[in-house]
């Protein structure tokens, strides 16, 4: 695994504008991860102990539907965040994630980042605001898809 620099983190859209001290804290808990196309990064309901910032490639976020199997909810790519369940108890993935293409991402150790956020509340506040913006944008996209769905269709995915 490759060491992550604050300069590399500062260039990622999710972290753009974050103070240098906060970037240093995050860099200490990060590494570069690479995944092959078809790799399942995590499964919904599993223990959530990390998160990723995508540098290249695409990931489908999915959920298991009984009797159907995994159903894709959204596909995310460069500049996006994968995984927010590491921050909120009970630390279980709300969705699954599988690589649509080869993926390179910054990978962060969730418990380490949580501890750093407790030690530095300004970092925790900054990171939480950024996560909330992602969640809000994804919720809005989901609402838009549901509203745009033709009337009478039973398939909500």
Give an overview of the whole structure.
The chain has 157 residues and is α+β, with helices and mostly antiparallel strands. The protein has one domain: Jelly Rolls. It has helices at 6-10, 20-27, 110-119, 121-148; strands at residues 2-3, 30-35, 40-42, 50-56, 59-65, 69-76, 81-82, 96-99, 103-109. The strands form two sheets. The chain has a five-stranded antiparallel sheet. A four-stranded antiparallel sheet has the order 3-8-5-6, with no helix packed on it. Strand 5 and strand 6 form a beta hairpin.
List the helices and strands and how they pair.
Blueprint: E1 2-3, H1 6-10, H2 20-27, E2 30-35, E3 40-42, E4 50-56, E5 59-65, E6 69-76, E7 81-82, E8 96-99, E9 103-109, H3 110-119, H4 121-148
Antiparallel strand pairs: 1-2, 2-9, 3-8, 4-7, 4-9, 5-6, 5-8
Helix pairs in contact: 3-4
Which features characterize this protein?
157 residues, five-stranded antiparallel beta sheet, 9 strands, globular, alpha+beta, 4 helices
User: What is the strand content?
Assistant: 25-35%
Oligomeric category = single chain
Q: Termini distance?
A: 36 Å
| Overall CATH class | Mainly Beta
Domain count: 1
How much is the radius of gyration in Å? 16 Å
**Helix proportion:** 25-40%
Mean pLDDT over the residues:
90
Order of strands in the sheet with most strands: 1-2-9-4-7
- Structure classification: alpha+beta
Could you list the spans in which at least 5 consecutive residues all have pLDDT below 50?
A: none
Helix tally equals 4
Order of helices and strands: EHHEEEEEEEEHH
Largest sheet: number of strands, sense, barrel closure: 5 strands, antiparallel
Give me the CATH superfamily: Jelly Rolls
CATH topology: Jelly Rolls
